[in-house]
Amino acid sequence: MTVTACSGSTEPPSWFAQRTELPSCGEDEEHTAGYPDREARTCFREAFEADRPAELTRLTYGDEGESIRTHFRVLGSARYEIVGQHFDGPADGSDPSGRGRYECDRFVFVDEPGAGSDGAPETNAAGECEQVEHVSA
Hints:
Elements: E1 3-6, H1 14-17, E2 24-29, H2 38-50, E3 54-61, E4 67-76, E5 79-87, E6 98-104, E7 129-136
Parallel strand pairs: 1-7, 2-3
Antiparallel strand pairs: 3-4, 4-5, 5-6, 6-7
């Protein structure tokens, strides 16, 4: 079940703003010095494999100037979630800005040595996640 809401408010929804702080593996941001952050990706994958709480934040950019900040979260007890923010770019009209939350059965990681995305978790690559919250900006 997905809960969707529209909001003119700039305040984040409580499920976003009040989420439990987890140990951070770091940030992995495209187009910055140090990208890709293999250390952060390895930290997160090891936490996932050990079912140890952790979070990895990734910032990616789309073809039309939009950006997406994604927080991949291992909650422990075989529970996983993705919490994300989508920011429109100047030419982007396809997806609304907003915040979303997904509950996941697992994470799928990119295994393509040499690729910029190698070792990074994917967002719902094989239907392993279900969107349960969405708020449009």
